[in-house]
Amino acid sequence: MTEPTSAVVLFSHGSRDPLWRAPIEAVAARIKADHPQRPVVCAYLELSEPPLAQAVAGLVTAGATHVTVVPMFLGTGKHAREDLPVLVQELRDNHPQVAIHVQPAIGEDPRMTALMANIACERPAA
């Protein structure tokens, strides 16, 4: 029996400005460096490519059997609370053989809160 392939999707809002995507793509690059065996892609709600459905379809085609969607939002606003559950249900309907897990908004993780607080309190560089 083959081992399940777990993949990660970093899901964010999107923007027409390509520089806006740089931090999300940096997280993906860090995952690829630290966990080279784990497929990771970025996906966007709007204004950027690829959309969530396309990103997950690509992972499934590549053999993913478990997909974790990480909402790259500071909080659980309308997109995470209303839009994402609809999109995830469509994913589950379209890929019933794949286990799809959605993490809470990344900004609500206590480790992220602590990191942001530490950064905010750092002394400015001389």
Automatic annotation (TrEMBL):
Top-level taxon: Bacteria
Key word Lyase present: yes
UniProt cross-references to SUPFAM superfamilies, sorted A to Z: Chelatase
Keywords noted in UniProt: Lyase, Metal-binding
UniProt KW Nucleotide-binding keyword: no
A GO term for molecular function: metal ion binding
Name of the featured protein: Cobalamin biosynthesis protein CbiX
Organism encoding this protein: Acidovorax temperans
Origin organism lineage: Bacteria, Pseudomonadati, Pseudomonadota, Betaproteobacteria, Burkholderiales
